[in-house]
């Protein structure tokens, strides 16, 4: 074995590898593009392989939603991907609660995101997951850290977000639009880094500084998502082995991300952290392994930044199309808080804004930040809708499609109606398995309440001060999504900003 490994290393380093391995990659690519056509000739698989869905649908998630709507069980199987996809709430509950242990993230998923997330909570199963979740649950459940999160978000809104948007007021006369998606990404990155690391990245300053760390996260997220969408893992694994193409770029990004994480950890240990409130300081009291600690924190940063910025972008796209909803949010705020534009002073006051809460939930029903989530079946199983699932099959539940199911939300499911969440003016939760935007069951999002607080704080502060006009051509008024671990508008969300 040592001889074989040595021979392989010599071959990889030789000039001959420049000729041989591109040919191997081409061969493997052709093999795995051709083989599924022989294996399965059903319309779904052939449409996926030829990408002809693009002729009818703007996004892959819309095609899946179409297929799932027309399935009697709200479940489909794409043979070329060995992927069973469902929009059936009973199946979601079965996977996330009833048979939780039979549907872990799985080794395939962990391998895809392993370079980026390492052993972080979002990429592990078993004892490692239970250990991290227990710590995170204890820390994120504390009133002190929720108060700290509220203070961090409020400060970022008042000192950076509002002044930046104010600087763009009136620029529409000179053609000066602002990419609101980029602004929200910067805001959520500043916010999560301050909350997680105690680090001020200053991405939202008026000069729009470029953050190498944020750029590395963006690219690493996109390239990791491309791994997941590949018809076969062999191509990207060979590219990773040779450190070429997209895998070389991914490796460089991850090196940058891990370097900063370790620098922050070492600085914290040097300065002491007993009185700090940020998440890193709290985790450092329990975890001694700095590499493991870095994986945990990078996972929280990635999740906290991308999901919040995605949710805010979709929310303001919808609000731009529904001025009556904006008026209702303002009226409620005037009634509950008062007519001034000052932010709420505490989280308890925010809980009284039922229409605002309903608006945020309704926005994520139609545009969930994470459009689908996958598990892997350990042992042969049968889902509640009688779908047989073979061991090793990827099983995906699809919140994006579920938000578009008449059987779940009624015949008006495609309409943006915050009122569907209200009973006598009071916000009412629904079964989490028909609305798994924050996952559900044992893996329910621990940062849910803090994320909602952040979303509502931003929405309330901005709609009471500004009016946003979309600066999109008429033929681009339907959102198109870029590949990534979370939903992002392709081309951003350009707007003109006006004062109320």
UniProtKB/TrEMBL annotation:
Sites where the protein binds heme: 445
Pfam families xref list: p450 (PF00067)
Domain of life: Eukaryota
Keyword Metal-binding among UniProt keywords: yes
Statement: the UniProt record of this protein carries the keyword Ion transport: no
Keywords, ordered alphabetically: Heme, Iron, Metal-binding, Oxidoreductase
CDD domains per record: CYP86A
Cofactor(s) listed in the protein's UniProt record: heme
GO molecular function: heme binding; iron ion binding; monooxygenase activity; oxidoreductase activity, acting on paired donors, with incorporation or reduction of molecular oxygen
PANTHER family per the UniProt record, alphabetical: CYTOCHROME P450
Family under the similarity heading: Belongs to the cytochrome P450 family.
Official protein name in the record: Uncharacterized protein
